[in-house]
Amino acid sequence: MNIDEIMNELTLEEKCSLLSGADFWNLKSIERLGIRKIMMTDGPHGLRKQDMDASEIGLEKSVPATCFPSGAALASTWNKNLIKEVGKAIAKECLDNDVDVLLGPAVNIKRSPLCGRNFEYYSEDPVLSSKIAKYFIKGVQSQGVSACIKHFAANNQEFRRLTTDVRVDERAFREIYLKSFEEAIKEAKPDCVMCAYNKINGEYASDNKKLLNDILREEWGYEGVVISDWGAVNDRVKSLEAGMDIEMPSCFGVNDRIVYEAVKSGKIKIEVLDRAVKRILKLILKHSNKSQTRCVDYEYNHRLASKVAEEAVILLKNDDDILPLNKDSRIAIIGEFAKNPRFQGGGSSHVNPTKLECPIDEIKKYANSVVYARGFNSNNDEIDEALIKEAVNLAKISDVVVLFLGLPERYESEGFDRADIKLPYNQNILVDEIYKVNKNIVVSLSVGSCVEMPWLDKVKAVLNGYLLGQAGGSAIANILFGYSVPSGKLSETFIKRLEDNPSYINFPGSNDRVYYGESVFVGYRYYDYKNIDVQFPFGHGLSYTRFEYSNLKIDKNDYFDDECIDISFKLKNVGKYKAKEVVQVYISKPNSSIIRPIKELKEFEKIELDVGEEREVNLKIKVDDLSYFDEQFNSFLVEEGEYKILIGSSSRDIRLEGSIKVKNRQKVKRMYHINSTIMDVIKTEKGKELLKELVQMLDVDENNVQAKMMKEFYLNMPLRGLIYYGNGKYDFEKLNEIIDLLNNEA
Ligand code: BGC
After folding, report:
1. How confident is the model at residue 55 (pLDDT cuts 50, 70, 90)?
2. Which domain holds residue 576?
3. Which domain of life is it from (predicted)?
4. How far is the CA of 93 from the centre of ligand 1 (A)?
């Protein structure tokens, strides 16, 4: 039966029943019409299908599945095609487990380093985040499994996440928080979007017509279903009208009955219900008709997880080229995480791995002399003198010390935010003590987000692996010994002090309200503007080789706003290792008429080069990508004038610079009104002509402070001020005439 035939057969009660889950993870079936159950499960970096009754939340036990590196690490690869492979691999495991919808990717912006779910999210930058998500979704959906991008939108903290009202200005909402979803939704077309728990400017995301209908469906052309986050529905009738189709998990019939009554009483139109039911049926039918091929090679997926982990590891520092290590060195491995790795985060994304590699076992496969000491107890922050002594003694007799540090699970998880960005005290002290006896220290970090490194000057190298998944052990070992060359880059800024973060004052808010006071200045957009010294900038990551950038070419100088900019340059591997580089394109708008970040990422690519190899890199960006969101016009606009195109190896390591000029094909038409300022009016030729006398009067000697003050007063005055300061020559009739002439000007 097709959708229309099914619609004709469904009773009102049955239609209402389809609006909510049968249990925690399944939609309802209607056997008489051949509508089968479809199953949705977490999550963003591996399948978490509980292996018990689906009527329970099941945060503990799930079927074995490949645990890929978590979101923060996936984004650190900056490798679009590799992320697509991850999507495909997870989807195959979904098929193998009869799962139809995967609840991921999770693309909320890392507004504060404290957010407990930062390990799951991709970036502080919406372009990086959305592009990574786009490829992940393409991978998942290429296998016939539906992806569910989440949490739509502005769900950037865990503290009171079910009720907090996010107060965000429209420009930041569009340019940062929605941007992180936009390209992924428009171009990868996920079958499902999960709406967030929180409120946005006073309205719950689930009830939010502007968000779920006006922007998502009407502006972006989205045709799939919207699913609530688990328990996010506030008012079922309102949410249905807003465009929220499926409520999860089961509401035990409560809201289905409310909708039934609302339709019966005419409170809600049957068309509104039908619209949602049709979308739900489309999703169900897609899965009813798909072929259920079970061909998962879990070994292959494990190896893929290892490859991804290798590409995710970021070499933050490497003084004296201490890395890669010499296999014949006497190596002390210190730190509990070398034996008991922290490889994933807590909460709904928690995967039961098919196997787990241990870094020390993998290191022993390469090195000839390895000793191990635990160094600290991750269960508490207290200093254990005996553990430190044992570690120091081994460090004394070793050529090099590799310290496995990180945040214990109890520090960060879904459900709660971190209190600060410090590592446990006992780990920082351990570094200080080791430094007293051995200066060759390499730190390998397992963290979900930015941490302070008070010992940074004492160590020669730092590797940040984030949470590397089940195959992180071999990835770290391969990188330590140079079998793989680091190519990860930071997808978030590592700041020096929490206070430097722009959301510091407004995180996590109070009285169930949080103000995004920093507006669009999130992450590097803020640190660059304020020229703040950071530990490691956005986009940073070293290699064992060196890359040279040269010969930037931009296909022309002048563009219209509906064109594309073709950029090319040469990249050469001038070092000793075959390796990959992430090239990053930023744009900058000198002399902007609005307050704008100094630079913004627009495109990136990961490129592999042999030793000595040089290649031409070709990238394209749309002129439209240079736009900002104009609140007055309620639309993205491209400012005319000069733009800089910056090619960097990181946001603070710009290697090449070019510039272009942009014109709008259609002039942006500002409308004038009684409160338009003289300054704005006389920017136009018509305005100058209409207020000719005034313009002449404003040609004053700038050294005469009184005259200058008067000039500024006039410039800042709204047109209505001419009633008082226009020598009696203006009344409202005259002013309205001026306004009409200005607005009618072509
Ligand atoms: C989380 C979602 C998750 C869902 C189902 C919610 O609490 O916010 O990310 O997909 O639970 O586990």
Report:
1. low
2. 547-663
3. Bacteria
4. 19
What pLDDT, on the 0 to 100 scale, is given for residue 50? 86
Amino acid at site 738: I
For ligand 1, pick from 348, 350, 351, 414 the residue to mutate: most ligand atoms within 8 Å of CB: 348
Q: Is residue 386 within 8 Å of residue 374, measured between CB atoms?
A: no
Catalytic residue among 42, 96, 229, 417: 229
- 70 with 344: CB under 8 angstroms? yes
Looking at residue 290, what is its pLDDT? 74
* Residue 4 bears catalytic tag: no
Q: Are residues 349 and 479 in the same domain?
A: yes
- Residue of 42, 49, 156, 413 to test ligand 1 pocket, by largest number of atoms within 8 Å of CB: 42
Query: Which of the listed residues 620, 638, 663 is the one where a domain comes to its end?
Result: 663
pLDDT tens, 101-132?
A: 999 999 999 999 999 999 999 999 999 999 99
Alpha carbon of 296 to ligand 1 centroid (Å): 26
**For residue 83, is it within any domain?**
no
The pLDDT score that the predictor gives to residue 154 is 98
Longest alpha-carbon distance in the chain: 94
pLDDT digits (tens, 9 = 90+) for 363-402: 999 999 999 999 999 999 999 999 999 999 999 999 999 9
The token duo for 515 is 């103000």
Q: Is residue 131 part of a domain?
A: no
Residue 146 lies in a domain: no
**What is the pTM (predicted TM-score) of this model?**
0.96
**One domain for residues 587 and 617:** yes
Question: How far does CA 34 lie from the centroid of its chain?
Answer: 39
Using pLDDT thresholds of 50, 70 and 90, give the confidence band for residue 669. confident
Domain finish residue from 636, 663, 690: 663
Q: How far is the CA of 228 from the centre of ligand 1 (A)?
A: 9
Whose alpha carbon is nearest atom 3 of ligand 1?
A: 348
Pocket of ligand 1 (CB under 6 A): 42-43, 103, 150, 229-230, 348
Helix (H, G, I), strand (E, B) or coil at 547: strand
**651 located within any domain:** yes
Contact 207, 238 (CB under 8 A): yes
Helix 385-396 / helix 425-437 crossing angle, nearest 10 deg:
30
If one counts the domains in the chain, the total is: 4
Q: Are residues 338 and 456 in the same domain?
A: yes
User: How far does the centroid of ligand 1 lie from the alpha carbon of residue 467, in Å?
Assistant: 19
